[in-house]
Fold this sequence. Notes:
Elements: E1 10-16, E2 19-25, E3 28-30, E4 33-36, E5 42-46, E6 49-55, H1 57-70, H2 77-90, E7 98-105, E8 111-116, E9 122-125, E10 128-132, H3 135-145, H4 154-163, E11 173-179, E12 182-188
Antiparallel strand pairs: 1-2, 1-10, 2-11, 3-4, 5-6, 6-7, 7-8, 8-9, 11-12
Helix pairs in contact: 3-4
Amino acid sequence: MSIFEYNGSALLAMVGKNCFAIARDRRLGVQLQTIATNFQRIYKMHDRLFLGHSGLATDAQTLYRRLVFRTKRDMKPETFASMVSALLYEKRFGPYFCQPVIAGLGDEDKPFICTMDSIGAKELAKDFVVTGTASESLYGACEAMFKPDMEAETIAQALLSSVDRDCLSGWGGHVYFVIPTEVKERILKGRMD
């Protein structure tokens, strides 16, 4: 088993028309044993910028704390992504075993999403990004459900249908829908085993 799969996770971000959504599962496990059912994987950096982590839970929390220390003011998502990438690359010989997902609204309310590997190599996307142990089923669900300029609620269905196919993630979901004027947060009920 890979160290990235040790705690299990499902994390995705998807864009819509002048909006985005970021979602996660709620399970924290140690391999097949469930430890917690409401583990925090998505962090609000400010009203228009969110950071999610998959991978080793302790490394993800450490990386988040270092980013909070470095982030003193609101910044554009592209700038924040470059800062995260540089921080990860600094630790390339002893990396954080996590894969961040960054989602935000930039200039003119244009949605921005990207994911990175553990040494900071960015993968930019115009539709959706996924990471975690459920990433294979997340890719399939997102490719089947995504359409350009759609409403952001599709992400909830993609998440729930994907975590049902992965024994290392689950226990429902937590979704943030972000439009230029507000942030909506929803807790999803899902498989409880």
